[in-house]
Structure prediction request, 272 residues.
Amino acid sequence: MRRSKLASRLLQVRRRGPVLDDVPADVRPPSVAAAYAVADEVVAALVPALGRVAGYKVGATSAAGQKALGLEEPFYGRCFASRILRSQGRWRDGRAGDSVEAEVGVLLARPLPPRPEAYTEAEVRAAIGRVLPLLEINRPAYARPFEIGGRCLIADNGVTQALVRGVRGLAPGRRNFARERVVLSIGGREVARGSADVVLGDPLRALHWLANALSARGRGLAAGDLVATGAMTPPIPIVAGDTVVARYSSLGTVTLRVGDAPASRVMARGKK
Prediction:
């Protein structure tokens, strides 16, 4: 099957090619539906190497973000099984342009398959197993991602690279996760703070939106899927050697280590 021009260019970037300085007008997706079609091509091409889709991210979860990107609603991207890390895990596939955002994560206990009628918020909440602290690693394929427009970001699979999930979290119960706060630090230095109410007023609304957006396209969420509901902090650049810690007001802490372990540690482990 022949790939679209944009999908081919995005895959070249994903395979360590240079980022795209621009995308010609005749190559850009003419609609949101066309953008998701390109993303489908990119995801299908990466599954053999990176594993099945096991997670999702929701982006543009504020009115200001949607306006800036020329969108009328949020968008989603998909994350592969091999790119879902647990807290204290290492991100070894880093390169220039990587950044992290702190988010509220949701782990599903029950599936939300596609169906003709829309899901209610109560139905979606009932499918949640745990609400977790989470970091999303992003890497746009474009040199100027905030200028390229939302449809090109959708085509780039929402620019997501990996998700880092906390271990414990909380059962949803009747908790109001809009009140959740986070402090993000790198190397022990605070770099950002955020609040979950910037995510559609309540991060669980992002999950509700995602369930219905996928269902409308004949897709669904599976039990065990992990969802990053939307950024609570700005994207913060990361480089090899960084230790990123996000401390939440009630969900706990999630930690990411960037790059391989120092050689001294590798040698020490080898001697044991």
